[in-house]
Amino acid sequence: MRVLDDPGRSPLRLHNSGHRGRTTRHQPRSTGQEGSPNGSAAGAVRSYNRHETRAEAAGAVSNGISTTRRGVQQDMSGEEFQTLASDFYGFAEELTPQERRHLAALRTRLERDVRPLVDEAWERAEFPMEVVPVLAEARVIGLGAELTRPFPNSAVFRGWTALELGRVDASVATFVGVQNGLVMGTIDVCGSDEQRREWLPRLADASVIGAFALTEPLSGSDAARGLRTTAELVGGEWVLNGAKRWIGNATLADVVVVWAKDVADGQVKGFLVPTSTPGFTATKIERKVSLRAVQNADIVLDDVRVHESAKLAGANGFRDTAHVLRLTRAEVAWQAIGVAVGAYEAALAYTKEREQFGKPIAAHQLVQEKLVRSLGNITASIALCTKVSRMLDAGTQRDEHSALAKLVATRLMRETVALCREACGGNGIVSDYGVGRFFADAEAIYSYEGTYDMNALIVGRAITGHGAFA
Ligand code: FAD
Fold first, then answer.
1. How far is the CA of 219 from the centre of ligand 1 (A)?
2. What is the pLDDT of residue 53?
3. Which of 216, 394, 439, 456 has the fewest CB atoms within 10 Å of its CB?
4. Predicted confidence (pLDDT) at residue 19 exceeds the cutoff of 90
5. What integer best gives the mean pLDDT of the chain?
6. Domains, in order of start, for the chain
């Protein structure tokens, strides 16, 4: 089997110093619990052995990845899919062989080419642009669009892709979520054939970077009725004026999907605006404490003129925006599970190595309860998201289904990262130890693509028949 490459300066190897300059390499020791349920006890001990053979690895765990007989799926391509130990019921084993193969290859690339970069990027609040070609080559962008998908696939598989990304880094997962779901999703759902042909292939190979501008300084949760950005058709050109806030990837982007109210009919419409257009400016939002590597920006649109053809053909009212958000919310729910998994795996490994009162803290009952509650949250969320994605494939998913998945998965993620942080004590707030970054990043995910409250109101309206937004 292919053992994951050394994740470089993985925090789990840096146990004896929180100071990077004085870091000592930690030699994980055997826990003596290799026979525990799901074969998951060896954890981090086995994950850094580069020379392990397939036979030696059987029954062990690599970096939270179960390699038990049940969990290993050998596919024809030679890429092995290993069920995550945190996928306690083995949901991912229900994916097709081709989907599992794709995920296995993605996981290998993420461990090798992405994980080593993300802590530093988070510290510096810069997006690691080196990962963009890696993501494009791994074909994680454009998985859902007929024009760009590498093979026909299920929404459950696309959810697992978001989980794998989130498990390594929430900022990278968010970058993909914007490019893939919000930008390509809007063009795929609302664009004309010509617009799809023009933009989707270039977005999928990341030769073009996109952003999605809905939120404004004075309008977040009430975007359906509160947008102030205007669009006016003047002599064959749309003239856009207004301001946007929080727009992910905007300082890196070549094109932005801008949502604005048509002054003629008061309807919210979508426009493809190249960032080189005169009158367009994007300024990075500084000093964030969550998702620091994501480049969020304030945008100003000052008499920005685009050709009539830049209007997305099928984006003619907020109903169309909501359609896109229904699709992306379910993927954010999967991404949130990934963040919970990332924190859980780090906390599990840490607690098996850290000793207090003469034994690993993982051997104390109260610490085990935190880990088990986290695993329960993850397992329940995977079950929920698997179903909501199946509903999408079956054509039965509605706004309230996707909203419920997002609000439950993000609430459980928030609880999980806090439990995992707590289980690591003081080291839980230092990013070197693997949990702190997930803990901080969970806050933004909890609030974007509809806050917990907004999603609750969407579900509340569906079950009571009463809209309680205003
Ligand atoms: P507000 O709407 O001001 O809400 C503040 C609080 O009031 C929340 O708790 C909310 O739930 C509550 N509240 C508001 N109204 C009600 C009500 N009727 N009943 C009960 N409670 C209510 N937007 C984009 O368009 N594109 C992006 O790429 C993008 N990326 C983002 C990335 C990050 C990291 C973040 C933090 C945000 C991003 N957003 C983006 C914006 C995001 O979608 C908004 O932050 C979110 O919709 C909430 O809006 P707000 O921040 O203005 O909060």
1. 8
2. 29
3. 394
4. no
5. 87
6. 22-190 (1.10.540.10), 210-310 (2.40.110.10), 326-464 (1.20.140.10)
Which of 17-26, 252-261, 361-370 shows the lowest mean pLDDT across its residues? Answer: 17-26
Q: Whose CA is nearest to atom 22 of ligand 1?
A: 453
Query: CA of 465: how far to CAs of 18, 462, 468, in Å?
Result: 53, 6, 9
Return the bridge partners of 61, or none: 66
Which residue's alpha carbon is at the smallest distance from atom 27 of ligand 1? 247
The reported pLDDT for the residue numbered 17 is 33
> Which residues, at least 6 apart from 273, have a Cβ–Cβ distance to it below 8 Å?
240, 255, 256, 257, 258, 280, 301, 304, 306, 310
Ligand 1 pocket, Cβ-based, cut-off 6 angstroms: 178, 212-215, 220-221, 246-248, 291, 294, 296, 444, 447-449, 451, 453-454, 469
Q: Is 363 exposed, middle or buried (0-12, 13-18, 19+ CB in 10 A)?
A: middle
> In the structure, what pLDDT confidence band is assigned to residue 72 with cuts at 50, 70 and 90?
low
Give the residue from 100, 177, 116 showing the smallest Cα distance to 144.
177
Q: 141 by DSSP, 3-state: which?
A: coil
Residue-level pLDDT at 25? 30
C-alpha 67/C-alpha 19 separation (Å) is 34
Q: What per-residue confidence (pLDDT) applies to 31? A: 31
